[in-house]
Amino acid sequence: MITTNPFAALSASLPLEPGVMQAYVVLMVLLVIGGTLLDVVHKKSAQYFFEKGQALKKIAKREVNGGEKLSLAVSTLTNEVLSSSEFENPDRRFAHLFTMYGFVFFVVTTAIMIFGLPLAEGESSFFAPLFWHLGAVSICFGGSWFWFKLRADVRSDGNLWYNVHQSDIFVVSLMLMAAFALVWSFLQSITGSTSVLSLLAFVLFIASATTLFSTILWSKFAHMFFKPAAAFQKKVAVADGSRDKLPEIPDLSSAECKERYPDIPEYMGDNPPNMGLGIKREAPSHF
Fold first, then answer.
1. 287 falls within a domain
2. Residue 169's CB: how many other CB atoms inside 10 A?
3. Which of 135, 146, 177, 247 is least enclosed, having the fewest CB within 10 Å?
4. Are 18 and 139 in a shared domain?
5. Mean pLDDT per segment of 10 residues, for the chain of length 287 residues?
6. How far is the C-alpha of 274 from the C-alpha of 172, rounded, in Å?
7. CA distance linking residue 44 with residue 37, whole number of Å
8. What is the Cα–Cα distance from 54 to 114, expressed in whole angstroms?
């Protein structure tokens, strides 16, 4: 099952041309692009980033050159994007990483398997179907970890696991897409591509995938594009000294700082840099 291309078996058993499936993939890509652009216009995200960048330039203490910006971009890619280092809660971070990498593998291998059709007998790739199934499992695992460990937070937020709101469209449709993909592949392997159960699972898989990629304007899908941009802009603001219009934190133990703020020892102790764990005294159990 996990090394078999389910789309090839479907195309061979039903009058479903590879071109139809390829057109569907292209349509989903266009929906993502169009939905993201509509989200940018609706939320005025691009305008916000541009205006904020212009405002910070006016108070910047130095100019960040191209080499520094490239270094900051690489840092953003490796930390905020690839490793999600900004998440303090390990549960949140691991759930996000499993879901993110599972989604990437699932989408890429789906495109590879569909655009590789039609396949002659014996030419089916071993790795693409394997990573497709593993990607779907990773999505279900990470999504369930997030939903039942973090999202269903009755103690803190009163969120029961079955309370679904508009903001949950992304994660719910993503989990359903991966789950129905696995169910469809399993049923297809034991009952055949033309069985009622297999076709029903396939229809539900396509319905959930279409929901995921067509509801960007109302879901958090576009967030994955804005998050790296915001992280990069924040790093640039620190590098050029504008610091998002926030005051620079001085060396609390320096004589100059103690002279300027003589009451620091009264509420921060004699050795401020070593004040203890503070809010990290108790490990976070929520977001």
1. no
2. 18
3. 247
4. yes
5. 84 82 94 88 80 83 88 90 84 91 95 81 73 96 90 70 82 95 94 90 96 87 80 87 78 78 72 62 61
6. 44
7. 10
8. 44
